[in-house]
Amino acid sequence: MSKPLQYCPETLALSAGFFPDQQTQATTPHITMSVNHSFVPEEGSFSANGIADLADAPFLYAGWTNPTVRQLEQRIAALECTDDAYATTTGMAALSAVFFSLLRAGDHLIISDVCYAAVYELARDVLPDYGIEVTPVNLTDLDAVAQAIRPNTKLIHAESPCNPLLRLTDLAQLAHLAKQHHVLLSVDSTFATPVITRPATLGVDLVIHSLTKFINGHGDALGGCVAGSKALIAQIRSRAAAHFGATISAQNAWLIMRGIETLYPRMKTISDSALQIAQWLANHPRVKQVNYPGLASHPQYTLATEQMAYGGGVIVFQIDAMDEIAQRFARDARLFYYAYSIGHQRSLAVLLKTADLMASTYRMTTEQERQYRRYAGDGVFRLSIGLENPHDLIEELDRLLC
Ligand SMILES: Cc1ncc(COP(=O)(O)O)c(C=O)c1O
Question: According to the UniProt entry, which residues carry N6-(pyridoxal phosphate)lysine (predicted)?
Answer without folding.
Answer: 213
